[in-house]
Amino acid sequence: MAEISLSNLDFAIIIGYFMLIIGIGVWVSRRTNTGEDLFLAGRTLGWGVIGFSLFASNISSTTLIGLSGDAYRTGISVANYEWMAAIVLILMAVFFIPYYIKSSITTIPEFLENRFDSRSRKYFSVITIFLSIVIDTAGGLYAGALVVQVFFPEVNIWYTIICLGVFAGLYTAAGGLKAVVYTDVLQAVILLSGSSFLTYLMFSNFDFSWSSLVSTVPEDQLSVIRPLDDEALPWLGTLIGVPVLGFYYWATNQYIVQRVLGAKDIKNARWGAMLGGFLKVAALGIMVLPGVMAISVFPGLDDPDMVFPTMVANVLPIGITGLVLAGLISAILSSIDSTLNSSSTLITMDFVKPKNPNLTSRDVAKIGRWTTIILMVIAVLWAPNIVHFEGIFRYIQQAFSFIVPPVVAIFFMGILWERGSRNAAFWTLVIGHSVSFIMFLLSIFDVFALHFTITAGLLTAFSFIVFYLVSIFGEAPDHESMDAIIWKPKDALPSEPLPWYKDYRFHSVVILIMTAALVITFW
Questions:
Q1: Tens digit of pLDDT for each residue in 450-491?
Q2: Does residue 1 lie within any of the structural domains?
Q3: Number of domains, the chain
Q4: Residue 65 located in a structural domain
Q5: Cα separations (Å) of 179 from 13, 32, 269, 328, 330?
Q6: Domain residues for 75?
Q7: 234 - beta bridge partners?
């Protein structure tokens, strides 16, 4: 492997890029005065900004770093998380976006209070804050530190994490969601272009011959559907577990859905989700396959999470390396600032504001900024511990598999089943997480050895059963209060008459056809 270094041009591009990012943050911060400005960008976001921001916020700790690393270690089945995300975004557009936008909620836990009661709202809010800081924010900081260490191995990982955390924390506290999403668009365009070019250059090592690539890696590593006993991702896990993890992440996770909540209207929210879905389908070609190609191009890497930064450093030409590296670090920062902003929103709007209803909009913004900084400190302190886990991507997915199943159950049952009761929601969370904790302990001591995706599916099925039984044998909710919340077939219709090419249902069909073609091709 060639020596990893950056040219003066690369350094100049990186410095110029971050000066631009800072300039955008300062410009937006001067126009960020209220809580709604800070948390929801004043509800002014259009579909393009939403779609690219959805993609950019996800692209860092799990996509470019984690997916390439997992593909290097186990093959392309890790791409199942990506094409499944496209299907989940369609489900969100059909079932949840109509309620999210029409109800003008600020946080996703508000849905649970409107549908059930404040107990479920606060419970879920705490869970979301924990996952956002310990899993998403800390994971983003660690991923960023890995990238920096490829080029500057002498820099201590602690120093890198602190610098990234401080930059992202101050940037988010100043500009809020609008600053985050505006820079997301720039990052997404750079990383999509850079990843496509990187894939082209990596494929050139095989003379652009698919048969040549296939001959260099085990055949099963180029299949998305794997045997039941597969260590990486068994087919049953893809069927029952990956949709659960995907639904939580894309449809109920505050730091992702916050972009949708900031949409100017329902049609822009749906179009943004569709754009995000299109971009996720493309991930296998430009983000997963290069990791498999690296098996023969860069054999023997000790840490799979170093695969993508190593490819950037050794394959891309001068200038492009600096641009893609700047975009990658900036996208990692995007993941960090997104989770910080969403967690600050939850604490401020779900806990502080209800106890202090007389707070002005400026007071809310001030509290949100200070909360962001405190959460940043917590994430910085935890991030170095991720080194003890087997890859960033698995660290994130394994944590989710034990925590999110009860959440997925109550959201689906809450919006689709009128008979679901408030006690059912609360006790599904309590009982579901109690059983999850027991299964987690059993897995640590190798008493329970199922793959974590299968575990997620089984825990979700158990949570559905708990919700159903408590609802049937308990007090029925008031019918009139449910009328505006429970999903009805008419809610799937476009919010206004549109030509076919602007109808999100047409976009959904195209995405489903693309997804089916991908799965069949790489079966």
A1: 888 999 999 999 999 999 999 999 887 777 777 788 899 999
A2: no
A3: 1
A4: yes
A5: 21, 9, 18, 17, 13
A6: 8-25+42-388
A7: 226
